[in-house]
Amino acid sequence: MPIADITIIPIGTETPSVSSYVAEIQKVLQQNEGKVKYQLTPMSTLIEGELSDLFDVIQQLHEVPFTNGIQRVATNIRIDDRRDKKSTMVGKLQAVEEQLNRS
């Protein structure tokens, strides 16, 4: 299952804070919960799902700042698409924890 790390940067906001935009993005993710799983982090949002669903949801997320009056948006996307075995956000964390417990 592909996992995407996405950061959406609204350019030209009135203040340095972007938490209101992040909150609006999380609302869009909540509306897509059947399509993708997601996890907010302090610096980005992780989403997992079928690749076509990821691209659909990413496009929706990219539009959020525009619908809130921003005229320029930079979106960074990093996708981990492992095809030799099933991979999930939870599974990746568990693999690291197992390695830590071996030490």
From the spread of the alpha carbons, the general shape counts as globular
- Total tally of structural domains: 1
Compressed to H and E, one letter per element, the order equals EHEEHEH
Number of helices: 3
Query: Count the strands?
Result: 4
- In percent terms, what proportion of residues is strand? 25-35%
CATH structural architecture:
2-Layer Sandwich
Give the C-alpha Rg.
15 Å
Q: Averaged pLDDT, please?
A: 95
Residue windows where pLDDT falls under 50 for at least 5 positions: none
* CATH C-level label: Alpha Beta
Give me the secondary-structure topology.
Elements: E1 3-11, H1 19-31, E2 37-40, E3 45-48, H2 51-67, E4 72-80, H3 89-102
Antiparallel strand pairs: 1-3, 1-4, 2-3
Give a structural overview.
By secondary structure, this protein is an alpha+beta fold. It has a single domain (3-101), classed as 2-Layer Sandwich (Alpha-Beta Plaits). It is 43% helix and 25% strand. The protein has a 4-stranded antiparallel β-sheet with strand order 2-3-1-4, covered by helices on one side. Helix 1 packs across helix 2. The chain starts with a strand and ends with a helix. Belongs to the UPF0045 family. InterPro entries: MTH1187/YkoF-like, Thiamine_BP, UPF0045_domain. Residues 4-97 form the Thiamine-binding protein domain. This is Thiamine-binding protein domain-containing protein. Pfam families: Thiamine_BP.
